[in-house]
Design brief:
Elements lengths: L24 H20 L5 H16 L4 H17 L6 H16 L3 H20 L7 H75 L6 H29 L5 H5 L8 H18 L2 E9 L10 H21 L3 E11 L3 E9 L2 H5 L6 H11 L3 E7 L2 E9 L4
Parallel strand pairs: 1-2
Antiparallel strand pairs: 2-3, 3-5, 4-5
Helix pairs in contact: 1-2, 1-4, 2-3, 2-4, 3-4, 3-5, 4-5, 4-6, 5-6, 6-7, 6-10, 6-12, 9-10, 10-12
């Protein structure tokens, strides 16, 4: 009566070669058990005539057919039961196992209409037998017999409901596992991008600041300012790296880490502060450019999801690092334009390329990490070099579904 989805059968049946590869080993086992009991009932009976032997063999054959054609064979077993009930002298006991199999298996397959019709047919035939005085069971025995059919149907339905409940639980466990793996992969992607951005940005700025403090023309005051900036950048980079390590060790909350900046500041104002800060740092290194932030609707607090805000801040960090690494020093070194709309954020960045400096730098993997993060948020990012001008365009949904 039980239907298993495992094509190789459950583990308890692996020891039996006949059950290997069987899709419904429990149903097959019960059918074999029913056929054996049907033939034993015939062998133990007092009347072992050829007619009774044929009757028992037909019952056993249709019981076997219940594995492949449960509806047709169930109707056939019930019809045979009806005929033999009205035909005097036919033994009843071999029928009992097959009838229990019919009601149990059909109820397990949730063929409620067919089960009800067969049950009504059994009731009708026993009423007809009583009305026409055909020798049969006493009324109390008939009630008990019909009750066993109901119990078999309830057992089949109960097993089906239990299997469905187990399947739902397994699907929920698999879905939860997939969600956990997805969130873990997104967290790892965020941390990989963060550790790359922070170290690349910090070390690049430290290198350039150290270069500016080395010339003989640099005064003591300029050297002191450069060393102070180097110390500040190194401290920020070290703190960022330690935070990521803490999260990986499980001693910090990645959600709090993602929302740690600008909690009490409007999103657009926070972007403006971030751009102004980097513009000032790059100006001291000889990179002069323009950065603007626009909103499509003034007076609105454009507050995106935390994951979107975090990715945009990290992407801006990476863009300024790339500018320092690859752009040509001087006026109009770069242009960054951010437009915050009602449903998405459009970012465009372009800068001149100093091919001599770029060839000496390590190829960065930061943008590929950001592209994966933006794609996971439902956005797009493209970048290319045309006529010595690097251009990047990104579209990020304001709210991540």
């Amino acid at each position: 009566m039980m239907s298993m989805s495992n094509a190789t059968g459950p583990a308890p049946f692996h020891i039996f070669p006949a059950f290997r590869g069987c899709k419904r080993p429990y149903a097959l086992a019960i059918i074999i058990f029913v056929v054996m009991l049907t033939m034993l009932e015939y062998a133990a009976g007092s009347d072992q005539s050829m007619a009774n032997l044929m009757f028992a063999c037909v019952l056993a054959s249709m019981s076997i057919g219940m594995y492949w054609l449960p509806a047709c064979c169930g109707i056939g077993i019930t019809a045979l039961s009806v005929a033999t009930t009205l035909y005097p002298g036919m033994p009843f006991s071999p029928q009992l196992w097959s009838l229990w199999l019919v009601f149990g298996m059909l109820a397990h397959q949730r063929r409620y209409v067919l089960v009800s019709m067969l049950f009504i047919a059994e009731i009708a035939v026993y009423l007809a037998a009583l009305v026409f005085h055909v020798p049969t069971w006493a009324p109390s025995g008939i009630v008990t017999l019909l009750g066993t059919f109901v119990i078999a149907a309830i057992a089949g339905y109960g097993i089906s409901a239990l299997q469905q409940f187990q399947r739902i639980q397994e699907e929920l466990r698999q879905r939860q596992s997939l969600q956990e793996r997805y969130h873990r992969s997104q967290r790892d992607l965020l941390l990989a991008s963060r550790i790359h951005d922070s170290t690349a940005r910090g070390l690049t700025l430290i290198s350039l600041m150290a270069d500016d403090s080395m010339p003989a023309t640099a005064t003591g005051e300029n050297r002191h300012a450069c060393l102070r900036d180097i110390k500040s950048v190194a401290a920020d980079t070290l703190a960022e790296t330690r935070t990521v390590i803490d999260i990986l060790c499980g001693s910090d909350d990645s959600a709090a880490y993602a929302n740690r900046d600008h909690d009490n500041v409007m999103f657009v104002d926070a972007l403006r502060q971030q751009l102004d800060g980097y513009d000032h740092i790059l100006a001291t290194l000889g990179f002069l450019g323009t950065s603007v932030v626009h909103t499509e609707k003034q007076g609105t607090n454009h507050r995106p999801d935390s994951a979107v805000a975090e990715e945009l801040r990290d992407l801006i960090d990476q863009l300024y690092t790339n500018i320092v690494t690859h752009a040509r020093q001087g006026n109009d070194s770069y242009v960054i334009r951010i437009v915050v709309g009602r449903s998405r954020i459009n970012l465009t960045e372009s800068n001149t390329c100093d091919m001599a400096r770029s060839s000496d730098r390590h190829i960065s993997h930061g943008l590929s990490l950001h592209e994966r993060r933006i794609r996971a948020l439902g956005g797009t990012m493209t970048y290319a070099i045309e006529e010595d001008v690097w251009t990047l365009r990104a579209q990020i949904p304001l709210f991540h579904a």
